[in-house]
Amino acid sequence: MMNTPAAPPLPDDLDALLRRLRLPHVRRHAPDVLATAKAQRWDPAEVLRALFTEEAAGRDRAGLATRRARAGFPTGKTFDAWDPAVSSIPAPTQQALRTLEWVHRRENLVVAGPAGTGKTFLLEALGQQAVEHGLHVAWFTLEQLGVLVRAHRADDTVTRAVEKILRADLIVVDDIGLLPVGPDAAEGLYRLVDAAYEKRSIAVSSNLQPRRLRRDHAQDPRDRDRRPAPAPRPPLPDQRRKRPPRPSPHRQGSESPGLTPDLGRNGGHHWADLVATTGQEPRPSLGTSQGSVADLGIEDLLS
Length: 303
Fold this sequence. Notes:
This protein is α/β, with parallel strands linked by helices. The protein has helices spanning 12-20, 24-40, 44-71, 91-98, 101-104, 119-132, 142-153, 158-165, 183-196, 210-217, and strands spanning 109-112, 137-141, 170-176, 201-206, 276-277.
């Protein structure tokens, strides 16, 4: 076998200049590219194109590895191992989710179904695809949110920690309802959903159906520490019953409570039953007939 001679190293001043300009991939490939260009009499523009192509490709690989590591995926599963025919989620829904248009529109996703039906697999594959498309993803379990709240409550930096999470384009909260939810985890989920409303996309997996998910997790966890108002005392026997004041024909203050629209915290948005479901229980498919993904309104989970 003939051994190809090693390319001569770069001059020290050129190597130092490339280090100063932070072009590590150009510095790594420059000896081989320059040797090939000299042997094949490349045009100077071809040399620059080859070097900067290597630099761009190297930065893309490094950025992908960094985004993937920061996401904190549990296993590293991708759509390469996903079988669309096995999943009970309709094929148009799967295709609509894989386009990631719902992430760019800052819409939310809930994947509901029994344990072992591929909810985590689907969310992780979607997260991996988002990372490969240059998006930033943050992966959490409900227990990890509780740990985050406890860690930052001592110095009152919970809000700052949540704002740091919102740097991601897609935030995934896995396995809601699998274990009992403590007050710290409930507060962490509430703060995250409230802060991400119309700013970031949140994807949630749960073994609970949407109605039960709302019933079990719809209350502001801070309400648990608030005592109910005391019941009014009964009137004494010798007190005369007073007639209620006659309402004034002129409007004073706000509308009557019975006539005030119940808009809620998010201005009247309601929880939608359109979810991606796994398992045997039939549920409505996600999105319209054209395959677009509907906004699932997860912000109302805890409203």
